Amino acid sequence: MAEKKETAFMEKIVALCKRRGFIFQSSEIYGGINGFWDYGPAGAELKRNVRDAWWNDVVRRRTDVVGIDGTIITHPRVWEASGHVTSFSDPMVDCKKCKGRWRADQLPETKCPEGGPHDYTEARQFNLMFESHAGPIKDDDNKVYLRPETAQVIFAQFQNVLSVSRQKIPFGIAQIGKAFRNEINPRNFTFRSREFEQMELEFFIKPGTDADWHKRWVEERLTWYETIGLPKEKLSIYEYKKEELAHYASACVDVMFAFPFGVQELEGIAARGNFDLSQHEKFSGKSMAYFDDETKEKYIPHVVEPSAGVDRICLALICAAYTEEEIAPGDVRIVMKFAPRIAPVKVAVFPLLRNKPPLIEKARQVFELLQPHFTTEWDDRGNIGKRYRYQDEQGTPWCVTIDFDTLGEKGPELLDTVTLRDRNTMKQDRIKIADLVPLISQRLRG
Ligand code: ATP
After folding, report:
1. What is the CA radius of gyration of the chain?
2. C-alpha dihedral (280, 285, 290, 295), degrees to nearest 10
3. Whole-angstrom Cα distance, residue 291 to residue 294?
4. What are the pLDDT digits (tens) for 307-339?
5. Rounded distance from Cα 177 to ligand 1 centre (Å)
């Protein structure tokens, strides 16, 4: 019963994402392609806001983190050193009857469509990296991989960044970018995709300070999720037990979110020791050591790695924002209650009517006043009520309507005033045009 409710809720989310241009199936006109998703106009803005919030908070506002922007395809030795070529795999099984294919640790609860239980093959390991060839000749010498994570690009550039950035340990290198994993069973909408985006930080530290820095980053990252509007009660952490940790890691905590389909990972925060840098030193023959010119110590830094998925965060934000409100008997308003900071559009500007040139002209002036300060949308189609509902479904926190009062037709006291409508309360206030920018800026910060 509960499962049915969750499926119905996810169906509503998927339908809204399509209807309001958050997320479309990739190549939908050709029947789609499993595990790939496109972001529409609203989704592209949402995603950009998530990236910007992370980049601002993790890189720009700190003095101890710098950013890079590396390539998707690297020298294949990067992935030999990191261990991905030999061990980045999942166990896979097939059903001999229906030919279905699953991860051996994520078997379906359903019966075989051919009747009775599924008849599984032995599990075999399947490497999740996508392969390609660099250059015109498709042989093993030219084999390359699409990066399955952004992190290794950071490790491979550690010495270059260190030499140019004037940073000293402890400091971090951050990166946002695409990653690719040939997941056996993409599922739960965008949650498990084959192409996705990561926001990763490698925070390099002095050996021995791992536990302290790991704790600090877990706290920092958990709080960050609240600042982008995810409700505290839906966030939790999962602490890995000793036996669950990779052999080189001393601690790992996942930040979890209560999705409609279960409590699942948004971000992993691992204390990885010096495994990655040591591996690259071994495979490249280049030193990855750091020399502390104050203490005169030389060592390979340890690292704490907070690694988050942009698409999972967007999905969490969409699920958390989705609200249905019965505002009159039988009249249900769907409203996406995003935090203004990450809402795709901050303000929508409406001339009351589209065929009255003085209204349009005034509304254009208001649009041009707001547009340099906020992501602003123009809408002059349909009646005002419908326009409000459209913006509610897109999660726009404020709508500004320019009407005949704005033109001073009801008297000079209302001249150059507009209505400012609040998405959550639906309350409309009469505001002077000149007060709009400071007022909206204040509410946006608020
Ligand atoms: P999972 O156990 O769910 O497969 P993971 O532990 O393998 O995830 P990491 O390798 O720690 O994931 O990657 C860091 C982050 O990248 C994850 O927390 C998630 O947000 C994101 N991520 C990983 N795989 C995918 C995917 N297939 N689709 C979307 N996001 C992903």
Report:
1. 26
2. 140
3. 9
4. 999 999 999 999 999 999 999 999 999 999 999
5. 13
